[in-house]
Specification:
109 residues, alpha/beta, Rossmann fold, elongated
Length: 109
């Protein structure tokens, strides 16, 4: 692993929330990739390299976000799933700032 050999302190893989509970091949391959990436932490030995994965979902303004649908339907009822649904939205710039401040050697959603 080049990052370990070169003494890189932090290596971050950006992933998708589709890997959290995969329902198709796309999500399953992302999950496998995330787990393999984090498993690299067991190969660093005495070196300080940390491997982390950050999963994003519902980034405001991104393609595939649900936010445009909510903007279209500012009034009225828009069923998403059910009353027990809870979700979060990230602002892209905030998430980028968080990446540069601190990285954990595991998977963050």
């Amino acid at each position: 692993m080049a990052a370990i050999d070169r003494g890189v302190e932090k290596v971050i893989a950006l992933s998708t929330d589709k890997a959290a509970s995969p329902i198709n091949l796309y999500g399953a391959t992302n999950l496998a990739s995330d787990k393999l990436f984090v498993a690299a932490n067991s190969y660093v030995g005495e070196r300080n390299t940390k491997f982390s994965v950050v999963r994003y979902g519902n980034v405001v303004g991104s393609r595939g976000s649900v936010v445009p649908f909510f903007k279209i339907r500012e009034t009225g009822y828009l069923p998403v799933t059910d009353e027990t649904l809870s979700t979060s939205y990230q602002k892209l710039i905030r998430e980028i700032e968080c990446l540069f401040k601190k990285v954990w050697p595991d998977i963050r959603v």
